[in-house]
């Protein structure tokens, strides 16, 4: 790997593959724009590894360069264009409207785990500047020292070569391909999400009673919905996002080190109760959580990036990256779930009403926590209510109380390169 670790995902960015995200945080009071502007800049300076712009060198490779310009804060409107003049060339930006703050960022630097360092720091600074006293411990406040290993990259030489006991061999599952036709024509306009809130205490009690964790239960519930939506599917599976930072010795790193676990369901499971489906899900997830698989995945990732380096032009690098992406070359799943664990909002909790992660995906559940609630972003690439409706039907049948908001356009940021 010849260039910066954070630069390689940029080769895969295209019109239909944005590789960006935004986190929507609803506050209990209107946003004060002037305070947010100064707070966002002060907080962003705590993260020099995010304050970088992109350039193309003489080899056609992307290089990241330090940038001293401030992070941009503006009113939410048209999709943010990260990397352009609108954002001072940065791949991070903050927008707002009424009582909501949006944190926009490119996935090449980080996923939800690393982004929370920056998001929590910005919110802490914002409310501190408004005059509230919030203990800064754990909030990455400006001037605070970096965590041990906060910028660490896995050392390939230290990773064992042990072979996994077993790996997922389920192959591809059913995917509703017809839904992608409209998305191909208007990819940005077709991305939508619907917020769903479930009381955390109740959901965790339900999970314990049904032999599950949040991931395995959500996978079982989604399978139940998909089995009705796609009754002729020979196989349905869920891709569960797994953070493998600890496996490769970098538990605190901001870098996005994730891979997928796959939960596979066949038609014979169609009428099984949720607790049995959850048990099946947990078993498959447990088998795939072996650190040996993470070691192999990381080695394959580096080999892929080294091959990008061997391509002689920018166009060839992009073509190779798009055709051989580890993120897209694995087994195809019917739905995906991303939940990396409870977020510690500490003293910020009293100011936050809800938090939603918004990404690109079809039948994708992005899950965050705020206060005593699970905040689920139910995402599709087309405004098709049948998917949301069937999932909510399953929740009602299982007696899981929820509240659901209006479906919104995702309005994801784009990357200009």
Question: What can you see in these coordinates?
Answer:
- This protein has 417 residues and is of the alpha+beta class.
- The chain is 30% helix and 22% strand.
- It has ten helices and 17 strands.
- It has helices at 33-44, 112-129, 180-185, 200-209, 214-229, 274-288, 291-310, 314-324, 326-329, 385-397, and strands at 20-27, 52-56, 62-66, 73-75, 81-82, 92-97, 100-106, 192-199, 236-243, 258-265, 335-338, 352-358, 364-370, 373-380, 403-404, 408-409, 414-415.
- The strands form four sheets. Strands 8, 9, 10, 11, 13, 14, 15 and 16 form an eight-stranded mixed beta sheet that branches. The protein has a five-stranded mixed beta sheet with strand order 4-6-7-1-12, covered by helices on one side.
- α1 (33-44) packs across α2 and α5 (214-229) packs across α10.
- The chain is globular.
- The model has no long low-confidence stretch (mean pLDDT 94).
Q: Poorly predicted ranges (pLDDT <50, ≥5 residues)?
A: none
Helix content estimate: 25-40%
- Separation, N- and C-terminal Cα atoms: 21 Å
* Beta-strand content: 15-25%
- Total of DSSP H or I helical runs spanning 4+ residues: 10
Q: Specify Rg, calculated over alpha carbons.
A: 21 Å
Order of helices and strands: EHEEEEEEHHEHHEEHHHHEEEEHEEE
The main sheet comes to: 8 strands, mixed
Mean pLDDT reading: 94
Number of strands: 17
Overall shape:
globular
